[in-house]
């Protein structure tokens, strides 16, 4: 396993369109996170899965955002009716080496540009 | 609310010198604190983890300290090299089953040859 994989790397879309991103975590990891990051900021938590269960979702997250992790493997993040403010880097991370310490392994991210 | 503060301005260091980055936290008592490196256009990469009962942790040219009284962690790179130029993020973590890391905004480090 070569690490966390995210697709696509870049996505350009028009305002109002729907977009979907995919994340393939490290295979033995049971925890999966989605983050959003803008220039000069740290990763902003969006949502978290333990296996297939979505355990937490940011209160700041609009209802236009939804994420799934069917069968506890890969995950998808969908943004409906995109807005220019959604332009950001979307990062996926997985973890699960330890029950207590959560060292996270990140993908290279999907950069979204909403025109 | 929980708050993580890192040097907001870029840190310029001459090659060969020691770079020291600061991470301060408030309204939080983390059991662990992690440091990550992030290069432009890439995801963060884990570097070091330090536990609340550890004062210091080392890995090659890297050293991290954790002062729970001051609510501060320091990250040192000795004998810095231009290849160390990147943004460094600190991420404290609690001790319960809530695995969420709280992320700082990061400090951009520039090592000048």
Summarize the helices and strands and which ones pair or pack:
The complex is a heterodimer of chains A (115) and B (113).
Chain A: E1 5-7, E2 10-13, E3 19-24, E4 31-37, E5 44-50, E6 53-57, E7 65-68, E8 75-79, E9 88-95, E10 105-106, E11 110-114
Parallel strand pairs in A: 2-11
Antiparallel strand pairs in A: 1-3, 3-8, 4-5, 4-9, 5-6, 7-8, 9-10, 9-11
Chain B: E1 3-6, E2 11-14, E3 19-26, E4 32-38, E5 45-51, E6 56-59, E7 62-67, E8 72-77, E9 86-93, E10 107-112
Parallel strand pairs in B: 2-10
Antiparallel strand pairs in B: 1-3, 3-8, 4-5, 4-9, 6-7, 7-8, 9-10
Order of helices and strands of chain A: EEEEEEEEEEE
What overall form of chain A do the CA principal axes indicate?
globular
Largest interface: A-B, 25 and 23 residues
- The value of Rg of chain A in angstroms is 13 Å
N-end to C-end Cα span of chain B: 41 Å
On the 0 to 100 scale, the average pLDDT of chain B is: 92
Q: Beta-strand level of the residues of chain A, as a percent range? A: over 45%
For the biggest β-sheet of chain B, the strand order reads 1-3-8-7-6
What is the multimeric organization of the chains shown? heterodimer
Q: Give me the count of strands of chain A.
A: 11
Q: Gyration radius of chain B, to the nearest Å?
A: 14 Å
Topology of chain B as a string of helices (H) and strands (E): EEEEEEEEEE
Structure description:
The complex is a heterodimer of chains A (115) and B (113). With 115 residues, chain A is an all-beta fold. Chain A has strands spanning 5-7, 10-13, 19-24, 31-37, 44-50, 53-57, 65-68, 75-79, 88-95, 105-106, 110-114. In chain A, the strands form two sheets. In chain A, strands 2, 4, 5, 6, 9, 10 and 11 form a seven-stranded mixed beta sheet that branches. Chain A has a four-stranded antiparallel beta sheet with strand order 1-3-8-7, with no helix packed on it. In chain A, a hairpin with a 2-residue loop joins β5 and β6. The relative contact order of chain A is 0.33. Chain B is 0% helix and 53% strand. Chain B is mainly beta and 113 residues long. Chain B is globular. In chain B, the strands form two sheets. A five-stranded antiparallel beta sheet of chain B has the order 1-3-8-7-6, with no helix packed on it. The relative contact order of chain B is 0.33. Chain B has strands spanning 3-6, 11-14, 19-26, 32-38, 45-51, 56-59, 62-67, 72-77, 86-93, 107-112. At the A-B interface, β5, β9 and β10 of A face β5 and β9 of B.
């Amino acid at each position: 396993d070569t690490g966390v994989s995210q697709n696509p790397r870049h996505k350009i879309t028009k305002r109002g369109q729907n977009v979907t991103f995919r994340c393939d975590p490290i295979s033995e990891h049971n925890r999966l996170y989605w983050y959003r990051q803008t220039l000069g900021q740290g990763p902003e938590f969006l949502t978290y899965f333990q296996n297939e269960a979505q355990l937490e979702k940011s209160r700041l997250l609009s209802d236009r955002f939804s994420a799934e992790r069917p069968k506890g493997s890969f995950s998808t993040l969908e943004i409906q009716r995109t807005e220019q403010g959604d332009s950001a880097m979307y990062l996926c991370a997985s973890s699960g080496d330890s029950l207590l310490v959560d060292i996270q392994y990140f993908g290279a991210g999907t950069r979204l540009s909403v025109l | 609310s929980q708050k993580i503060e890192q040097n907001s301005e870029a840190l310029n260091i001459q090659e060969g010198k020691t770079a020291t980055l600061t991470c301060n936290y408030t309204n939080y008592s983390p059991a662990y604190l992690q440091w990550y490196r992030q290069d432009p256009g890439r995801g963060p990469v884990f570097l070091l983890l330090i536990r609340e009962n550890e004062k210091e942790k080392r890995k090659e040219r890297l050293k991290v300290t954790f002062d729970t009284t001051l609510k501060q962690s320091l990250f040192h790179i000795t004998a810095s090299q231009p290849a160390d130029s990147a943004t460094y993020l600190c991420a404290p973590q609690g001790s319960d089953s809530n695995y969420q890391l709280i992320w700082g905004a990061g400090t951009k480090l520039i090592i000048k040859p």
